[in-house]
Amino acid sequence: MEYNTARDKMAIPEYGRNIQKMVQHVVQIEDRKERTAAAKRVVEIMANMHPQVREVSDYMHKLWDHLYFISDFKLDVDSPYPPPEKEAISRRPEKLHYSENHIRFKHYGKHLENMIKYVSGLEDGPEKKELTLMIANQMKRAYLNWNRDSVSDKMILSQLEELSNGKLKLDDDVQLIPTNEVLSGSRNKKKKNNQNKNNNNGRKKKYGRKSY
Fold first, then answer.
1. Quick one: CA torsion of 141, 146, 150, 151, rounded to 10 degrees?
2. SS3 per-residue string spanning 12-59
3. Closest CA to 61 of 44, 77, 81
4. Which of 151, 152, 139, 147 is nearest to 111 (CA)?
5. Considering only CA atoms, which of 150, 139, 138 is closest in space to residue 179?
6. What torsion do the CA atoms of 138, 139, 141, 142 make, to the nearest 10 degrees?
7. pLDDT tens, 77-96?
8. Which among 52, 63, 175, 178 is most buried, taking Cβ atoms within 10 Å?
9. 54 lies in which domain range?
């Protein structure tokens, strides 16, 4: 009895050992024309085994690449596509470079920092002051989403000034959106979402049952 541990390692297990044996047989066929015809028949079998690949663009090209890979790139036939390079398959992928954007306060996010940078470049005037107030209120909302405890307006204004490098300032007596209003709005939104979820579940129970 022959065990799998004593057999050759399968190049692509999804095609099974029989396909691998077929490919090994095709490689050993001496006549090039006959070898090419046999390779085409193997590709057809591979396509029938996995009909879902037909939905992929240029799927025949992929099957021929798999055929070469299974043969350990020893197959020499008149393929409709150029054979893939063995070095390209074994080559390690290039290292991904992650974004090096440093976010000073992660709970505010990069978009808010970009908004601060944009408004900082505006000329002084009513529009800049109004946008600065809107940003400060958004910062307070973001902070309370991250930390449900109360936060002082003074701290928000201080961090706004820090993020803008001193270009965005509001008067110390300015009043931002009340904390209880932010928290109650979040609770109401969560409550509404739960109600919608319960209503959807109720509809499923009501209409999901068959009546005879």
1. -70
2. CHHHHHHHHHHHHHHHHCCCHHHHHHHHHHHHHHHHHHCHHHHHCCCH
3. 81
4. 139
5. 150
6. 120
7. 999 999 888 887 667 777 77
8. 63
9. 4-89
Model confidence pLDDT, tens digit, residues 142-177: 998 877 777 889 999 999 999 999 999 988 888 899
- What token pair was written down for 47? 């396509």
Number of domains in the chain: 2
Q: Are 175 and 191 in contact (CB under 8 A)?
A: no
Together in a domain, 37 and 74: yes
d(CA 116, CA 138): 11
Residue 119 lies in a domain: yes
The DSSP output letter for 100 is: -
Residue 66 lies in a domain: yes
CA 139 to CA 134: how far, in whole Å?
9
Least confident span in 58-62, 133-137, 175-179, 203-207: 203-207
Nearest to 54 by CA among 42, 69, 67, 44: 44
Scanning 50-178, the segments in alpha helix (DSSP H) are: 59-70, 86-90, 109-120, 126-146, 153-163
- Which residues neighbour 161 within 8 Å (Cβ) at sequence distance 6 or greater? 168, 169
